[in-house]
Amino acid sequence: MTILDVQGLGKIYTGRFGANQVRALNNVSFSVEKGEYVAIMGESGSGKTTLLNILAAFDKPTGGRVLLEGRDMTQIREEELAAFRRDCLGFVFQDFNLLDTFNLRDNIFLPLVLAGMGYVDMAKRLQPIAQKMGITDVLTKYPYEVSGGQKQRAAVARAVITAPKLLLADEPTGALDSKSSDGLLDLFAQLNREGQTILMVTHSTKAASHAGRVIFIKDGELFHQIYRGEATNEQMYQKIADTLTLLATGGDGHEQ
Amino acid sequence: MNSKFLSRLARQNLRKNGRSYGPFILAAVLTVCMFYIISSLAVDPGLQSMTGATTIQIVIRYGMVVVGLFAVIFLFYTNSFLIKRRKREFGLFNVLGLEKKHLAGVIAFETLYVALISIGLGLLLGVALDKLLLLIVAKILGVAAPMGFFVSLWVVAVTAALFGGIFLLIFLYSIRQVYVARPVELLQAEHAGEREPKAKWLLALVGAGCLGAGYYIAVTTTDVLQAIFLFFVAVVLVIIGTYLLFTAGSVALLKLLKKNKRYYYKTRHFTAVSGMMYRMKQNAVGLANICILSTMVLVMVSGTSCLMLGMERALHERYPYDMNISRSDEATIELCKKAVADAGIVPENETEYSYVTCAAYSVPGGLDVTRDYTLDTESSLADVMVVCLADYNRCTGQSMTLGPDEILLKVERTDYAEDTLTLLGKTYTVKAQVEPMVKYGNLTANLTSTWYIVVSDREELERVDAALASGFGVKSYEQHQGRYYMSRFYGFDVPGHDDETALNARLAIRDAWNKASEDESVDLAGTYECRAWERQDFVSLYGSLFFLGMFLGLLFTMAAILIIYYKQMSEGRDDRERFQIMQKVGMSRQEVKRTIHEQVLIVFFLPLVTAGVHTAFAFPILNRVMALFNLMSTNLYIWCVLGTFGVFAALYAVVYSLTARTYYRMVSV
């Protein structure tokens, strides 16, 4: 079953006075099946952040559609957007985006509180997730009191506690040391095995090598995609590295 | 690195930080301007030539000291905000290769520019507005303003020196901030101190205790003589209480709310409680400052305007007739009547009566005139005035009758519920407590209770007089014409209550009086008081207090507004990040807007509401302090307080809406 369908997505940034039009995305189309783990790769400025912002409904495209379970996200009204984001999407950011005025538990509760859930229900939901993330002991600590890895795992807990249809991750390992990165990637793999659909934007080959499929973007266009198939993480890593080399050396894409 | 570059950098910095330096320079200009004006008024030769100017200039000189002190604290405090916000900028310069001595140079130029602009513009504005203020003072005093334009070089020099000194202090503080910090610290300065505040229960309780004690004193103090001293005790307690409650109490309360999970985990409360906790940690002292400043404005402006508005009434109570001749005798009064008639003035509403006055202590069942004066019995001190029924009926238009041992009684500023009253060894039956009474101004200016006693006839009055004399042992100079303490009062109005006629009557009496005094055989008794003449003194005292109250009220209001503006602006940046995150995890724009609105609303109006509560609790004691200024009208004072609060709140609301808009633009994603 297709959970996310991106059709002919385009985004043009217009500078002041209509000058300097920048084409950030050009006719990008792909779809994500339920339970898939997709990584989107590309260099800085390739348009992957723009893509993620549109998928997260932070930004509106100038062309094309994004269907989440058949519903066109670009047509959702501003007033409903927050609730939609809260109920259907979960976010993990490079810089964690935890509020330093809340302890970890309250940070994780935030989307549920915004949705109006009672404390008892929230606590019931939190318990297994916190255990899975291994942060049960530090729940009452504040973001500045815990390590980067713990912060990111709390952020993942916040993203999945609403049981979102799609988990969006923006460079989730970007601010972590290698050990924490490994832990986080294992966690993502585990979530994915349990049925969570994940879409991750990254330029870490290692992070992408955990995904089931990797989509490459260059200059705002879909350049290439590779499937894991039966490959191990190591083989996947090699495949990705080869593609990146091709990308960097200016190898011809599909269209050129 | 040459100074040209540094000065250019300084100019650029000021322009770039316009949003925060603009209001600071504006405030500095206004402070300089106000200090110049008040100093100039203190030495203005034109003002000196006005009537009653001595009082005004003494009051204004006090004001000058207050404004000067205020300027030091206020500008220094506001600047510390600015520097704190700019630490990151300095850190960046430092990292980019500006040495600390260069940074000091940049700051020196910046401070120099700000100082030159502030002092220059402030003095210009001050000179321009000085004359206007002088006209206002003249208007308040009801006299013609002196012609001409006055600029005192001495005042200009004093103003420039004072503010030059303040800016030097500011400069030293700023470079110290830069010198003690390392670049990394400077860069990270803004993120320091995000630790959740601890609830300090003990301090919160002490704060509540102080506030409660202050309020208790203000509400329960009934003795006006003690009120002034106790008022200051109450003020200090309330100030301490305010600071402690804003700092420790607010956090403690929020912690309690947070502990209540049912309350805390509601969409509306969740972000508000935690946000407020941090806000209070960073801003409690600032908010307490605003609260104290607001209270000062409210008390000062309402008090002084009430005095001004109630002046005429106080004047009429103190001087019930246009001319009042008291503690006098028949011969002297005849002399005065003749002098007035010779001057061609026809007296109206003439009143004349004999009376005995003495000081006494109110004791159960009566009045004791023999006890020695001691401080601890102060509160039962009473002034007694005795008249006879015939005079009473004539002067008040009543037709009361009294048996030989019966009296009529009127008691002011205390209550007396008993049926009998013992005075000088005789127990009288109180036939009635009456409202209308002979008018006698000397006793209205009193803080002690006043007892008007109407006895049955002239013989009884003389008996009281004689008993009084024997009780004290008569001294020869108090004895004349066979009477001891008995005096006579004569009061009259001039046609149309015309001030000029009244003053002429006074002149006629004065001349006759002086002339008669030259003749050794004539013994004159008493004092003559003319309402129109005394009004000049009242006006110069109340008018200058009123002027100063308004002046300082304006200054403090400006300070409160500026502080609150900076509070909001400095928070905007932190809040921006916070609200961005919240929107990312599913808070809608409306919710963000509402949350911002609520928090700004609380931060803004908490000090105002607290100031209102302070003023309400201060009302009873202030009302009694007002009595010291002859002002006995509670109603008028209530209206003055309400009016002042209304105007202040309206001003506050305008600033709120402006700030809220800027703030929302700042944090909105």
Which key features would you list for this structure?
heterodimer; A: 256 residues; alpha/beta; four-stranded antiparallel beta sheet; globular; B: alpha+beta; 3 domains; seven-stranded mixed β-barrel; 18 helices; elongated
What class, by secondary structure content of chain B?
Answer: alpha+beta
Order of secondary-structure elements of chain A: EEEHEEHEHHHEHEHEEH
Average the pLDDT over all residues of chain A and give the rounded result.
86
Query: Class by helix and strand content of chain A?
Result: alpha/beta
What is the total number of structural domains of chain B?
3
Order of helices and strands of chain B: HHHHHHHHHHHEHEEEHEEEEHEHEHHH
Rounded radius of gyration of chain A (Å): 18 Å
Low-confidence stretches of chain B: 474-480
- Mean pLDDT score of chain B: 83
Which word captures the global form of chain A? Answer: globular
Number of helices of chain B: 18
> Proportion of β residues of chain A?
25-35%
Instruction: Classify the beta-strand content of chain B into a percent band.
Output: 5-15%
Strands of the largest sheet of chain A, in order across it? 6-7-8-3-9-10
Distance between the termini of chain B: 40 Å
Radius of gyration of chain B, whole Å: 33 Å
